[in-house]
Protein 1
Amino acid sequence: MEESLTVGTSLVDFYCKCGSMVDARLVFDKIFAKELAAWTALVEGYGRQGSSKLVMELLCGMEEEGFRLDAKTLASVITACSHGGELEAARKLFAEVIPSQDYFVRLVDLLGRANELNAAVDMVSSVESVSNVKLVVLWRIILDACRRWKNLEVGKVAFKRLMDLDEFDSAAYVLFASSYD
């Protein structure tokens, strides 16, 4: 394991997916020549656990080792920030990269979880060159967050935008109706 990066990285990923972060970290620490894939596997694992502070520590370690975030690692970090409530850390990271559509989905989800619904609406409204399918996903995320936070005002905006995209979107009707519960 110490000599085979593929085996080591696979074990890190395996233990992370099983929720055994102690074992994942033990294997990670034994990998002799770590590559980005091993770092990303551990970042994803801690992110799934909501351990955003440990993810940030890993980012520092990656930088010290000379690694730069790739798209997959960045997406995992933003997800970890979202699950850990680290809004400002995610915003800072987001500002440092050229965002792709996948990052927008993750950041809008983060804003929704943090009850930053107006910021989420502003972000989705300002996105250019996004497919209608992706816009539907983004507006549904906002509508779901509005339901969760009982924000009917922003929920109405999201629902209207969804109806403009697809008036037969049954998920939008269900989410909007459940906002009144």
Protein 2
Amino acid sequence: MILITRLTSNLLEQLFIRIDRAIDYKNEFKFEHSPEIVKEQLSKYIIPLLSPTKLDSEVLLFHLNYRETGAINITLKDALKNVDWLVDFTGYPIGRMDFVLIEPNYSFGICVERWEYQDTFISWGLFK
């Protein structure tokens, strides 16, 4: 179990290094902390534009207790079935966790980073 959680933590660290650098097909915007904005972005702008092949892809979902259990491996389609539950489950609404849903090799993903005065919604590789 320690190995799994260490690997998961390393994946998350590598993610933040990568998204701080230039990534192809990266979109980002800043906003005041709001779970409703994240849910709206996922429901109205991300999900409707995804190709069926992307929806069948395996992704990692980081959540409030990932340090104890590791990230959850799930298909993107299953992860996005209930956006309200998904966002709440991650711990993002209570300000205890960033929202992170990534393809294990970082080829695409969604990350909402929490900051002191504003959050940043970042997505990449989803529509190429």
Protein 3
Amino acid sequence: MPYLKAYCILLCIALMTGCTSVSAGFQSNDFHNIKSAILKRDSKPLDAWDRMRKGFQMPNLNTELSKQWIKYYASHPESIRKIAERSSKYLYFVIEEITRRNLPTELALIPFIESAYNPSAISKNQASGLWQFVPKTAQHFKLKQNWWCDERRDPVISTYAALDYLEKLYKTQGNWHLALASYNCGESTIQKAIARNKKLGLPINYSSLKIPEETRNYVPKIQAIKTIIKNPEKFGIKLPKVSNKPYFSSVKRNKDIDIEIAAKLAEISLEEFKALNPSYNRPIIKGPYSQTILLPIDTIDTFHNNLKLFKGNLSNWKIYKSKNRETFASIAEHFGISEADLRKSNHIIHKQKVTSGQILLIPTDKIKNNIKNNCITSNLIEYEIKTGDTLLKIAKEHNTTLNNLIKINKLKNDKIVSGSKIMVPFNKK
């Protein structure tokens, strides 16, 4: 047993140094206390919080700033409870990965400070995700950031990257407090502060460095949260239950699927699905950009069973790449949807009129609705073309599209002659 090995080592040290009597300052019940402490550490964790506490390894930062932040957070118990509640989806995974790497579990407290455990959080300097990666650092750790997805918000991939980064910082700094400070303000800032103190003959520990105000408070904040998590009852804070077992697991997918449809197949709310899969920028999860989705473990069988029985389309979107100097009006016309729907689906501002090589999402459910409402087999009436009429104007007046009128009347183009007659759908506004 691990505790027995450690106990024997301590006993041997005591014997070698002559600490065999009470007068030597090392009493027999000290061994009992050590044994009890090791037993407690190696016992099975009661929950994720207990597991975290057992893995605390960093030296405490007992400074005035730490005390101030303990007092601050203790006076805001509801905020702590909300963050802890939000963390419950991700906490087991984060602690599991930290433990697998033999790192101190205090690292699981970083998202408390960085993002309040909100994977969709974004800061004023464009840092994003649980671990608040800025774009440049994310690129260095190969986190994808494109039109389809932003892996800074992926709770799994970003955790791997953050722990890789923290391991690197620790190896460079040789001290966890300095590594955490480097994570906050950048490695070069801390190295410059250390070099400055060395030159002046000053201490180079975290508390002695001249660093940005935010960083000066950063480690004390983490220490404050650590102190509260270690003994929440002391501060009148009740943490939510978080089991020491996985909350989610990954599910392989080989077809494009809408986020909304995936949530329905798993029989979970759209909010729940997005909380586990917040990296997607679009309503469709496109094949090349992700091979898996995350789902609560207890819904995975439901998802697979519903997927087998599902008969409809897994996506209601068509992908279109615009041609050079193509207008949004003509694209909408081509697909038989309104320009308003096209703009809304792609977050296009009104003043942008043309596009070149832009990827666009075409809502196929809108196409179906237009086909249903304006199809060639609809009730048609005869319309006599007046002076000043254009085919586009007539289409708008009859709640249809230019392309549809051309098809209905088998025209070669949109040229019309005053006095001639065409057929139009009988659904005038």
